[in-house]
Design goal:
Chain A: GO terms for molecular function: GTPase activator activity. The complex is a heterodimer of chains A (473) and B (381). With 473 residues, chain A is mainly alpha-helical. Chain A is 55% helix and 4% strand. Helices cover 7% and strands 41% of the residues of chain B. In chain B, the strands form seven sheets. Chain B has a four-stranded antiparallel sheet with strand order 1-28-27-26, with no helix packed on it. Chain B has a four-stranded antiparallel sheet with strand order 2-3-4-5, with no helix packed on it. Classes of the chains: A mainly alpha (473), B mainly beta (381). At the A-B interface, helix 2, helix 4, helix 9, helix 10 and helix 11 of A face helix 1, strand 5 and strand 17 of B.
Chain lengths: 473, 381
């Protein structure tokens, strides 16, 4: 008993939850009214009562959970793998078959959850019984384990042999049918709790996770004070009505549905299905003419436009026409500071100040005076986030003003008009001939080819740079 | 040591600098201690009361359910998704994977300490890295495609530059960046190769400068192992969400280290968290056999994805490109695809022969990759 409580860890908790759920299913299966019909099963010359066929199990699951055959086979299969149902004919094959193969419910005494984890002592007794009952009945791996156990728990070996003999004697007094059933049940239990080498170990839980009682953090005053502060902040936050938020999800998914290859397919074909990389070639980072879907996406949100190198380049061109390109340049330079190397921050902040913020700067950006003052103050002690406020100001300026106008501009409309709509690739005439799958240059190549200057630009995602890292033909 | 996160505060005293009053020591934490008239019990009571109030406030704006709003959307037919590639090569359980931005390469890590970079399209193994530790639970591809990050039982997360020189031993160039006091369970680069975000069994998350290995920010608030994190795809790019064994999902401000939102509705460990593509919501996968959907603007859980016939825990989730589908990997070896809006299960994907450890949709949404304890990865499309 003590061994079990000591072993209680995270995976004990996780597995016990699953066991309990499976046990509920098993109990429901045996319900006198809603459960399965049992029958007698003939095993050679013996008749085993209370058995069912694999077909029965699957049909019951289909009916109970309203699932298809494949899923019922899978769920039932798990019940067999975990030993709640065991096969009568081929006991070592813990597989559910969708036919007349006979199965039986495991007795709760031998449920894995009843005594978990299985003890070495019990396993030794089981192997001893097998050994005594029929010399040479132990399989090779069982013989190895038997001798290992003999060494390990040698001090209790007399007890092991005595128990084994006692249990064998008691079982001889049973009816043959009961004896066979008991042997089957016990064998099934050990096949799961001590699987043969190479067999799937269904109880493999992986790394131990902690249980509820070993917290990583001491619940002291600091912890509670932080939690209280967090709660207060959370109480003060603005919440939006559900009807508005949820409508947002519906709209978003509708808008992007045509762009979702798993749902709607993609043109000319999905490379993973057709082995043709045309879709990727047409949608490389930099292409002469982008696809229509891609250009449409720029109109979904400002972020979509900026995230696409071609979109960003087009937007820059538009801003140049409007004489407000410095906004985008400033924004990009701020991104570079935020996401770049720590060692370069001071230099970059200085450059940004010189180019964009200093009075009379070549590409002076128009920020409100409050933000400007705060930023100039912050520049005295430059850090990664010192440009955040200014950057946000310019970002929203572009988003609210330039971006909507760009979408209405001829520049964008022309882009949309000349965008490519790929033809769907007709399915291959010879479906068995697989296309050759071409490799592509690794992005890792870019490390050697690209200079440091370009490296930084790539990190910040500037449009129109060296496309060595981008295109994959 | 600035690189070392040390979170062992005893009652009112900082374990690192032993100060009892306000202290901004090397551990970067402000220690306050108990004020007059306060006890741990009174603080806990105040905390519990505030949490109750928070739940009430959250309920007030709940005027409609997601599946009701979704009634007008079309019913999805079963997906015609099949296994298109099987990546064989790992000698033990595959624990994690991540796609490269080029949409076809990916990195995977395994229980036996091996990290492999594949061109999943051709099935070519392009790079192999052998780490000195087992259980590499976290791996991530750098945005540039020139490096990968990996970590696990060594309590570290290292960045390995990818070289095309076949004679080079990549592991030799490995650079330790993150240092935790327990296993590293997840990692991701932020918008560039220069910063790394990690989460750990030590109950914290942390942001690191890759170049110097410096700890930029640490995130405290979980009370048990943190198992997963995901970066928000937002315009301002400043938040991320984490989930762990304390059943909580926390949203963090990367700049200040503050916990801005917290959700506690799962009944067991949260194994994975992932943002909805718009950044306005996220999904979680838990040992309680459910996946849940949390709306960040409404500040509450808005959907639970569960089915009677699904008995085993969910270990991983990811959205399809439009966010309409949620793929979830389970401990019963299957992947279920859920209709995010209607809450129904659309398809089941069979094929793996052991637990699913990770599912990830490719960057352009053309495929789903699943990593499993059966030593393989599968590409579905």
């Amino acid at each position: 008993m003590t061994i079990n409580t000591l072993a209680k860890g995270g995976w004990y908790r996780e597995q016990m939850t699953c066991f309990r759920k499976m046990e509920k299913v098993i109990v429901a299966m045996q319900d006198p009214d809603m459960g399965m019909k049992m029958r007698n099963q003939r095993l050679l010359i013996t008749v085993i009562p209370h058995a069912m066929t694999g077909r029965d199990v699957i049909d019951w699951l289909i009916q109970k959970y309203n699932i298809c055959e494949e899923e019922a086979l899978h769920v039932g299969g798990m019940l067999v793998r975990y030993g709640y149902i065991y096969p009568l004919k081929e006991p070592r094959s813990l597989v559910l078959r969708a036919d007349e193969t006979p199965y039986r419910f495991q007795t709760p005494y031998f449920w894995t959850s009843t005594r978990w984890p299985a003890s070495e002592l019990d396993y030794a007794i089981y192997l001893a019984k097998k050994n005594i009952r029929k010399q040479g009945e132990l399989m090779e791996y069982e013989k190895e384990r038997y001798s290992l156990l003999h060494k390990r728990i040698n001090h209790t070996w007399d007890f092991v042999v005595m128990q084994a003999r006692e249990q064998l004697r008691a079982s001889k007094q049973r009816r043959k049918a009961d004896r066979i059933v008991l042997e089957c049940q016990e064998q099934a239990y050990w096949l799961i709790n001590r699987p043969p080498p190479g067999a799937h170990n269904v109880l493999d839980m992986g790394l131990e996770k902690p249980n509820n009682f070993s917290l990583r953090v001491t619940l002291n005053s600091d912890y509670y004070k932080r939690e209280i502060e967090s709660c207060r902040r959370a109480l003060g936050r603005n919440r939006v009505k559900s009807s508005i938020c949820l409508e947002g999800f519906v709209k978003f998914s509708e808008q992007y549905q045509n762009h979702d290859p798993i749902m709607q397919g993609c043109l000319p074909s999905n490379p993973w299905i057709s082995d043709d990389t045309a879709h990727w070639t047409m949608n490389s980072e930099i292409v002469p003419v982008p696809t229509r879907l891609r250009v449409e996406r720029w109109s979904f949100s400002f972020m979509e436009l900026l995230n696409d190198p071609i979109g960003r380049r087009e937007f820059m061109t538009y801003l140049e026409k409007e004489f407000s390109a410095e906004n985008l340049c400033f924004w990009q330079a701020c991104e570079d500071i935020r996401h770049g190397e720590s060692s370069k921050i001071i230099q970059k902040v200085e450059d940004v100040y010189k180019n964009f913020l200093a009075p009379g700067a070549a590409r002076w950006v128009n920020i409100d005076s409050k933000t400007m003052d705060k930023t100039l103050e912050g520049i005295k002690h430059p850090h990664r986030f010192v440009m955040d406020d200014a950057q946000l100001h310019i970002y929203f300026l572009m988003k609210k003003d330039s971006y909507p106008r760009y979408l209405k501009s001829d520049l964008y409309k022309n882009m949309l008009a000349k965008a490519i709509v790929p033809q769907e690739t007709k399915k291959s005439v010879f479906p068995f001939m697989r296309r050759q799958r071409h490799s592509s240059p690794s992005p890792a190549q870019a490390v050697t080819q690209v200079t440091e200057e370009d490296g930084r630009a790539m990190g910040a995602g500037k449009a129109g740079t060296n496309s060595a890292a981008g295109s994959h033909v | 040591e600035l690189n070392y996160i040390h979170w062992k505060l005893q009652a009112g005293k900082c374990g690192l600098c032993s100060s009892v009053k306000a202290c901004l020591s090397a551990c970067g934490m402000a220690c306050q201690g108990l004020q007059k008239g306060e006890t741990l019990a009174s603080l806990k009571r105040e905390c519990d009361n505030l949490k109750k109030k928070l739940e009430e406030e959250r309920g007030k704006l709940n005027d409609v359910e997601l599946h009701q709003v979704a009634e007008k959307t079309e019913v999805l037919g079963a997906l015609s998704v099949k296994t298109r590639r099987v990546l064989k090569g790992h000698g033990n359980k595959v624990l994690c994977m991540d796609w490269c931005k080029d949409r076809r390469r990916l990195v995977s890590s395994s229980q036996d300490g091996k990290v492999i970079v594949w061109d999943a399209f051709t099935l070519n193994k392009e790079h192999g890295i052998t780490l000195p530790c087992t259980w590499v639970m976290a791996c991530a591809y750098a945005p540039s495609g020139c490096a990968v990050a990996c970590g696990g039982l060594d309590n570290k997360c290292s960045v390995v530059p990818l070289s095309l020189d076949k004679t080079e031993n990549l592991a030799a160039k490995k650079k330790s960046v993150a240092m935790h006091t327990n296993y590293v369970s997840g990692c991701t680069f932020t918008n560039s190769d220069m910063q790394l975000l990690t989460c750990s069994g030590d109950g914290t998350c942390a942001l690191w400068d890759v170049e110097s290995g410096q700890l930029l920010q640490s995130f405290h608030g979980h009370t048990a192992d943190v198992l997963s994190l995901d970066l928000a795809p937002s315009e301002t790019g400043n938040t991320f969400v984490s989930g762990g064994c304390d059943k909580k999902a926390n949203v963090w401000d990367m700049r200040s280290g503050q916990n801005i939102q917290s959700f506690e509705s799962h009944e067991s460990d949260i194994n994975c968290v992932k943002y909805y593509p718009s950044g306005d919501a996220f999904a979680s996968a838990s040992d309680d056999a459910t996946c849940r959907f949390y709306d960040l603007r409404a500040d509450r859980e808005v959907a639970v994805y569960q089915k009677d016939s699904i008995i085993f825990g969910a270990s991983t989730v990811d959205f399809s490109l439009s966010g309409r589908l949620l793929f979830a990997g389970y401990n019963d070896y299957t992947i279920n695809a859920w209709d995010v809006l209607k809450g129904t299960r659309v398809s089941v994907l069979f094929g793996h022969e052991n637990r699913i450890s990770r599912v990830r949709v490719s960057p352009d949404g053309t495929a789903l990759c699943s990593a499993s304890w059966d030593n393989t990865l599968r590409i579905w499309a």
